[in-house]
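Hi F.,

I've been meaning to write this up properly since the lab meeting, where we talked about keeping a consistent format for the predictions we share between groups. The idea is simple: the sequence comes first, exactly as it goes in, then the structure tokens exactly as they come out, then a line or two of notes. No screenshots and no reformatting. I'm using this chain as the first example so we have something concrete to point to.
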Amino acid sequence: MSVTKADIVEQIAEQTGLTKIETAAVVEGFLASVRKSLAEGKSIEIRGFGSFKVRKRRGRMARNPKTGQAYPVKEQYVPYFKVSKEFKAYVDEHLGTGIQEKGELSERADSSGESTNE
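Output, unedited:
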């Protein structure tokens, strides 16, 4: 099961007491900030969660598998996310056991988002 943006908004609203409209505005603001920073070539580091960066993918020749025709693919910049060690360890520790207590993440130093299991 995937967790959608609407699910995240609902979870945050329940945990913080904010309305869903207020929470949705905060989530949208966060995402807009990430997009803008990456588009400007900046990286974003959120301690205990991970970092967003942009990588340059070199241009290359690609081939249509059906026809065998080669064509050039331009270089492009692609965003990627690198998970922090703490977040990776948290997921590894909890995967398969299920997260049952809603406030569990807020008690941890790596309160990175409770969208892994439910």
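Notes:
Confidence is low (pLDDT under 50) at residues 101-118.
The CA atoms of residues 54 and 85 lie 20 Å apart.

If this format works for you, I'll send the rest the same way.

G.
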